[in-house]
Task: structure prediction
Amino acid sequence: MKISIILSMTALLVACGSAKQAGSSRNEISFWVRGNCGMCEERIEASIAYVPGVIYGEWDRSTELLTVEYRTKKTTVEEIKARIARAGHDVEGVSADEEVYNALPRCCKYERSVNN
Result:
């Protein structure tokens, strides 16, 4: 009796876990975002905080990598990058508008490459 209950519970947990994974459309991606300081970190993370579908975003200042977990049915990587660029930071493949970049505080200015 106890063994059959344990087996039934195990089967149920496995089935629930599979259903969650199958129905989940989450994705995690990392890409570089140019910035220098703690203000940049706050601005970058805040720029994507309210993007529909974004679960979290964390920028590592030392590597300039932003890791984002998001729901693929609610947003795209392009939309996430566009939001960051609108905050004044160059993102892998997307350049911030010159006027927005120039409005950044002095400590947030980063060296822009000719490719951006």
In short: The CA atoms of residues 52 and 74 lie 6 Å apart. Helices lie at 2-23, 38-49, 77-86, 98-102. DSSP finds four helices and three strands in the chain.
